[in-house]
Amino acid sequence: MLIEDADCFSLIVPTYEGTPFVRRCLEFLQASGYRGNIVLCDNSTAEHLEFVKSCPGRYPELWLDVHLYDAGIRFLDKLVQTMERIDARYVMLCAQDDFVVADGVERLLQTLEADEGLSCARGRVGRFYLRRSEAGKDDRPALEVTQHAMLAYENPDPVGRVLEHIRQYASTLYSVHRKAQLMESFRLTEAGTQNVIFYQYLSSCLTVALGRVACLDTPFLVRQVHRDSWAARLKDDHEHWPLLVASPRYSEYYLQFRKALIDFLTVRLGHAEDGSLAGKIDRAYVHMAKRSLCQTGLPDTPDDAFFARLQTAGTTEHKLLSSVATFTLRYTDTY
């Protein structure tokens, strides 16, 4: 299997101050019989750092490598430095609180191997929330399923593809990537903007510019919504949505994003600029903002059918999500 060949693929798990989630992530991979190379890249402190350092000894059944960094390193720098140290042609990022579906990842690797025009490939994502009742923590939490859009971008024209990506945005971050292209997008993004939202937008747009994006109708990742997640912790920060729109630096961040993207499309990819590209990006961005903030112009997507299957007892997708949720219930410090 491609997933078991370290020259082909490595699963990168960026870890930070998250021992309960890292433990759960690795024990899920262990329980599911995962046999590929797993790289923990960590910049934690104190007991969290000690736990990550101990993981190869704690989980000898897993093929674990640990890369340690200073606590203050920036997220994209950590990922680039990690990718510089591994041999794999393809990589996938797995957050410390996520669950990987190995069969789905294998199919994505096969897709990338068969099509050199793809920069990355992804499948469907199951996302859930375990809601505790107000009666107390002793009650079994209720499982709630939430939608997580994953789209393909197949336009053969890089500029058209990028504009469509901005209009119908579904981040490419959690996909299976060609390592060289992901490293290039991260390096350029770090130089272009350091805002937590716009570096997601920019790195994703650069990935789309470098190649087409495939989306298979197969689950490859399960994600959990919870109060200790990165997004939840940042919700009251003016660097993140929803308060970003009120930040005094919002316009500055957007202009950094647009300039870096135009420079890449015109200089790196050689797009002939007639002065209209900035306006096209602006219009695409406004469309995206209306979708995300106002819930207008939302299209019907293949994710709708997948989302329906997630909620239908007896389907393969529902069984997968239920099994992950049941596994999560063992880890009471993660929900």
Top keywords for this entry?
single chain, 335 residues, alpha/beta, Spore Coat Polysaccharide Biosynthesis Protein SpsA, Chain A, 2 domains, nine-stranded mixed β-sheet, 45% helix
Written description of the protein model:
The protein is built from twelve helices and nine strands. The protein is globular, with a radius of gyration of 20 Å. It folds into two domains: 1-96, Spore Coat Polysaccharide Biosynthesis Protein SpsA, Chain A, CATH 3.90.550; 120-334, no CATH class. The chain is of the alpha/beta class. The longest helix is centred in the last third of the chain and has 19 residues, at 250-268. Strands 1, 2, 3, 4, 5, 6, 7, 8 and 9 form a nine-stranded mixed β-sheet that branches. β2, α2 and β3 form a beta-alpha-beta unit.
Brief rundown of the structure:
The protein is of the alpha/beta class and 335 residues long. It has twelve helices and nine strands.
Low-confidence stretches: none
How many helix segments? 12
H/E order of the elements? Answer: EHEHEHEEHEEHEHHEHHHHH
By secondary-structure content and strand pairing, the structural class works out as: alpha/beta
- Count the strands? 9
Shape: globular
Residue fraction in strands: 15-25%
What is the typical, i.e. mean, pLDDT?
A: 94
**What is the CA–CA distance across the termini?**
34 Å
Tally of structural domains: 2
Q: Roughly how much helix do the residues carry, as a percent range? A: 40-55%
Radius of gyration: 20 Å
Largest sheet at a glance? 9 strands, mixed
List the helices and strands and how they pair.
Layout: E1 9-15, H1 19-31, E2 37-42, H2 46-58, E3 63-68, H3 75-84, E4 90-93, E5 99-100, H4 102-114, E6 118-131, E7 142-146, H5 158-167, E8 176-178, H6 179-192, H7 196-210, E9 212-225, H8 230-233, H9 250-268, H10 277-294, H11 302-310, H12 316-328
Parallel strand pairs: 1-2, 1-4, 2-3, 6-9
Antiparallel strand pairs: 4-8, 5-9, 6-7, 6-8
Helix pairs in contact: 3-6, 5-7, 5-10, 6-7, 7-9
